[in-house]
Design brief:
Elements (H helix, E strand, L loop, with lengths): L5 E7 L13 H22 L8 E8 L12 H12 L3 E4 L5 E4 L13 E8 L12 E8 L9 E6 L3 E7 L5 E7 L5 H10 L8
Parallel strand pairs: 2-5
Antiparallel strand pairs: 1-6, 2-6, 3-4, 7-8, 8-9
Length: 204
């Protein structure tokens, strides 16, 4: 039996954990995303994570410095997505002034599409000391899913304000959409769908 490989990165917040509800100015949002992306890249380097994995699951536990009820989905644009971007491939783009912009990427997976990524799944961790972690702490758990058979099944994920819509599609293109709270793992629904459509063949 092959042991599942799991890595954990403890990333002290490099910038404020901005909520989508904050609706920050685009410059503030850009600086925040860049800080989180580069932090994920740096800590992946320090941990010597592998590169070029076929597929992974990413869980992110957010530890704040004060206790407060929070909607996990709100952290996706300015914290979760940049973390995934920092672990994913390097991005090179051409700007309006014809300059080339390079955004760091560790290369853990080749892309953040469902074919290579399950998640990211947010959760609220225990409060941490403001003295030790002035802006909070993000604990990122990476689980290697490479080599797990997909059988032609596809998964799509759409994040909304307080929920996530998951689309499960079988090889015959039958599909079902399941909406859950963003912090919930849809694995049970996916396994049920896979078992019910186990006999489906690739559509002609």
């Amino acid at each position: 039996m092959t042991e599942t490989r799991v890595w954990t990165l403890a990333i002290p917040a490099p910038a404020k954990m901005l909520s989508a509800n904050a609706k920050p100015h685009h410059r503030v949002a850009g600086v925040t995303r860049k800080a989180w992306r580069e932090a994920a890249f740096t800590y992946a380097q320090q941990a010597k994570l592998p590169t070029g994995l076929e597929r992974v699951r990413i869980d992110v536990a957010l530890h704040h410095t004060v206790n407060r009820d929070r909607d996990d989905a709100n952290w996706h644009p300015y914290v979760l997505k940049p973390i995934v971007d920092g672990l994913g491939p390097q991005k090179i783009s051409r700007q309006r002034n014809d300059k080339v912009r390079v955004d760091v990427g560790y290369g853990l997976i080749p892309d953040d599409t469902p074919a290579h990524l399950d998640g990211p799944f947010p959760s609220l961790g225990e409060k941490v000391s403001r003295t030790e972690y002035p802006l909070g702490l993000a604990v990122v758990t990476v689980t290697d899913l490479s080599g797990e058979p997909t059988g032609g099944f596809q998964v799509e994920r759409r994040v909304m304000s307080a929920a996530t819509a998951w689309t499960f599609r079988c090889p015959a293109r039958h599909q079902v959409v399941v909406t859950v709270r963003s912090a919930d793992d849809p694995g049970a629904y996916r396994e049920l769908f896979a078992s019910e459509h186990a006999g489906c063949e690739v559509a002609a």
